[in-house]
Amino acid sequence: MRLLVTGAAGLLGRELLRTADHEVVPGYHSQVVPGGVQFDVRRRDAVRDVIRSIRPDGIIHTAYKQDDWAATADGAVNVALAAGGARLVFVSSDAVFGPRETAYREDDSPCPITPYGAAKAAAETAIQAMLPEAVIVRTSIIVGSDGQSGEEQRVRRLAAGEPGVFYSGNIRRPVHVTDLAAALLELLTSDVTGIAHVAGPEALSRYELGRRIAIRDGLDPDQLPSEPGEPSDIQLDSRRTQEQLKTRLRSADEFLLA
Questions:
Q1: Count of Cβ atoms closer than 10 Å to residue 236 Cβ
Q2: Mean pLDDT across the stretch 35-63?
Q3: Which superfamily does 2-142+175-197 belong to?
């Protein structure tokens, strides 16, 4: 399979390039990826021309910019419009939901409370209408092993005394980047369509997750500043998708403290 990975310079994109057993064409915007193709997903003509040139069998669309509606929402729509017969896997987010006490299943309707969540939800709606055979994968906080994820970098900054705080009232279900990449590649070649949830099975506050990263990295977890913050419990229930996967989605306990 010839696979186009957008956002190939990011944490998830790099892991897909490292692990994919396909002919992979990396797509990037500003940070050069060797052997890749540069284009701006916000430009519909550029997306169309690149996809026509590459003629991919599959596309995993990871590109986004959190504070840019055009990159996050319009960019995803541009990729879907140009996909043609390619199998599309779109990476979405738990940010399409707002806080509540029970976990969200795949058939729950989006209810975003942030501009970023609204952009992802808009992209989901458009893709489902245009390409019902596509897979829309909602995920949560992504953690790596080499200190390159945003959460790991934040732990190091705050442990070093830089400004900031971890909120103990912000609850998510973190996932390891290797597990997420494996699940995306598996879904790419599966018969699954529609919404899939790919997040870890363990609910953690951002503060507790930060503490576990600090322990793994040999830092003092008690140096991390915390406060409750506004309650923000947003959890993805991934059990239905997990039943369709060979990839096992590990808990943070497993991938951080093993």
A1: 27
A2: 97
A3: NAD(P)-binding Rossmann-like Domain (3.40.50.720)
